[in-house]
């Protein structure tokens, strides 16, 4: 298969699926992983797509969320590292913690099961089910459930969150801009995240380093309002972080 034909197939596939893994593109084009990675590097330089860890993301769907089942498989090791670090350093026995809907915050649950008398409040359907399976006292916020991320949003959810106080909130983000703005594609989900942060004694944003420098439609907070917990930074990222950002680098 010619390079141009292969890259055309890749572009079409990525735009239709919004986010995909390298292994999927290998199967699609019947080529090796090294060939696909070279294609992705070239295509990113040409502005056709964006490379992410383990795959590629469409640049044509700026304001849309990526489906939950795909996001769970991306950067999985980094998410576990971040989640473990957050629990071990910021959760104490007896805490009431809000766990935001998201794939990094979801990974906190097995580690929270090791903390005595902890209670989880969440707007994430998968997080609530996982928490119950681990025998943790769990409250699932009510409201409208998003089809793609399975996050509970809307006025009902906001009202319930604003009636509670949390020892800590652990929040996900789709992007951290250079000015420190924390962003997500959906304004309704942004409103819920903002409420989670406001009602917490301490607020933490958990995100892998691929989100640093990214920008989405809705702003829900600034890094001055939270502590950001991320995995090991890439070369140059320390210089690109907003001035004054409180950063915990998970090990």
Quick recap of the structure?
This is DeoR family transcriptional regulator. With 251 residues, the chain is α/β, with parallel strands linked by helices.
Characteristic terms for this protein:
251 residues, single chain, Arc Repressor Mutant, subunit A, 11 helices, 2 domains, 3-stranded antiparallel sheet, 38% helix, Rossmann fold
Please count the helical segments: 11
Report how far apart the termini are: 42 Å
Note the quaternary state here.
single chain
- Spatial shape: elongated
Q: Low-confidence spans: pLDDT under 50, at least 5 residues?
A: 62-70
Secondary-structure topology with pairs:
Blueprint: H1 3-17, E1 19-21, H2 22-29, H3 33-45, E2 49-52, E3 55-58, H4 68-71, H5 76-90, E4 96-99, H6 103-106, H7 109-112, E5 119-122, H8 125-133, E6 137-140, E7 144-145, E8 152-153, H9 155-162, E9 166-172, E10 175-176, E11 181-184, H10 187-198, E12 200-206, E13 218-222, E14 227-230, H11 237-240, E15 247-249
Parallel strand pairs: 4-5, 4-9, 5-6, 9-12, 12-14, 14-15
Antiparallel strand pairs: 1-3, 2-3, 7-8, 10-11, 11-13
Helix pairs in contact: 2-3, 9-10
Q: Overview of this structure, please?
A:
There is one protein chain. It is built from eleven helices and 15 strands. It has 251 residues and is an alpha/beta fold. The protein folds into two domains: 59 residues, Winged helix-like DNA-binding domain superfamily/Winged helix DNA-binding domain (Arc Repressor Mutant, subunit A, Orthogonal Bundle); 179 residues, 3-Layer(aba) Sandwich (Rossmann fold). The strands form four sheets. The chain has a seven-stranded parallel sheet, sandwiched between helices. A three-stranded antiparallel sheet has the order 1-3-2. α11 links the parallel β14 and β15. α2 crosses α3 and α9 runs parallel beside α10. The longest helix is centred in the first third of the chain and has 15 residues. The radius of gyration is 19 Å and the shape is elongated. Keywords: DNA-binding, Transcription, Transcription regulation. This is DeoR family transcriptional regulator. InterPro entries: Carb_Metab_HTH_regulators, DeoR-like_C, DeoR_HTH, NagB/RpiA_transferase-like, Tscrpt_reg_HTH_DeoR_CS, WH-like_DNA-bd_sf, WH_DNA-bd_sf. One of its GO terms (molecular function) is DNA-binding transcription factor activity.
């Amino acid at each position: 298969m010619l390079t141009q034909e292969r890259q055309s197939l890749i572009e079409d596939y990525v735009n239709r699926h919004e986010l995909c893994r390298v292994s999927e593109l290998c199967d699609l084009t019947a080529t090796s992983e090294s060939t696909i990675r070279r294609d992705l590097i070239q295509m990113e330089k040409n502005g056709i797509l964006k490379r992410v860890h383990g795959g590629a993301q469409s640049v044509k769907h700026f304001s849309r969320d990526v489906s939950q089942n795909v996001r769970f498989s991306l950067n999985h090791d980094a998410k576990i590292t971040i989640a473990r670090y957050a629990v071990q350093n910021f959760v104490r026995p007896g805490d009431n913690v809000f766990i935001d809907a998201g794939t990094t915050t979801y990974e906190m649950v097995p580690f929270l099961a090791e903390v005595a008398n902890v209670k989880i409040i969440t707007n994430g359907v998968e997080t609530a089910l996982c928490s119950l399976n681990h025998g943790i006292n769990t409250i699932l916020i009510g409201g409208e459930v998003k089809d793609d991320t399975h996050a509970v949003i809307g006025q009902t959810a906001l009202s319930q969150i604003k009636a509670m106080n949390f020892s800590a909130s652990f929040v996900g983000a789709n992007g951290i801009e250079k000015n420190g703005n924390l962003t997500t594609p959906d304004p309704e989900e942004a409103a819920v995240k903002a409420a989670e942060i406001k009602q917490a004694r301490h607020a933490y944003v958990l995100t892998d380093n691929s989100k640093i420098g990214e920008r989405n439609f809705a702003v829900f907070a600034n890094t001055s309002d939270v502590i950001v917990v991320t995995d090991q930074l890439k070369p140059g990222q320390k210089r690109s972080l907003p001035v004054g950002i409180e950063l915990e680098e998970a090990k």
